[in-house]
Amino acid sequence: MTARLARPLPYATLAGFVLLLAVLFGVSYAAGSAAGPVAPGLHRVGGATTGSDGGSGGNDGNMGGMPGMGH
Question: Does the pTM of the predicted model rise above 0.70?
Answer without folding.
Answer: no
